[in-house]
Design a protein that fits this description.
This protein has helices at residues 11-20, 56-60, 90-94, and strands at 44-46, 66-72, 75-81, 100-102, 117-120. With 153 residues, the protein is α+β, with helices and mostly antiparallel strands. Bound molecules: iron/sulfur cluster (2 copies).
Amino acid sequence: MKKKPFVWPGKIVDLVMTSLFRRPATVRYPAEPLPMPERFRGMLLYFASQCTGCKLCMRDCPADAITIRKVGERRYEAVIDRGRCIMCAQCVDVCLKKALAISPNVELAQTRRDLLRVVFPEKLLDRGEPKAPPVASNSADGPARVGGEGGGS
Ligand code: SF4
Ligand code: SF4
């Protein structure tokens, strides 16, 4: 039987060898935290202490995802349906009191849809969520925005 001549496999060997020593292109989430870009639009937050109950956010929400309810004298709570929210941040842009903010938190998954309906205030600070941003003193510049100019996009 005639012996086949050896054929060098070509570029594939070079690729395998360089890949062995290269950093992986994938991330090990959820085993390791996944840092999101600074202005990424994730979980919506509500800061009751700054809310005046004007309901502009409700009027502007295109997904009917936020409800502001009066719970006492100058006290309000927000019901946010994270199953409906599309993280457009329109409510954040329209809120003059900076009572709403978009966080980069993307860990919204729940096993039941009703668990996506969240009533604020909840113990946000216990979970390491950001504190409420200060209210802009100069309202002549238009609506106060979270995350600088541009409204958290
Ligand atoms: S727009 Fe702001 S201040 Fe007005 S009800 Fe909504 S969260 Fe409260
Ligand atoms: S981020 Fe957009 S969809 Fe979500 S509650 Fe605000 S306005 Fe509605």
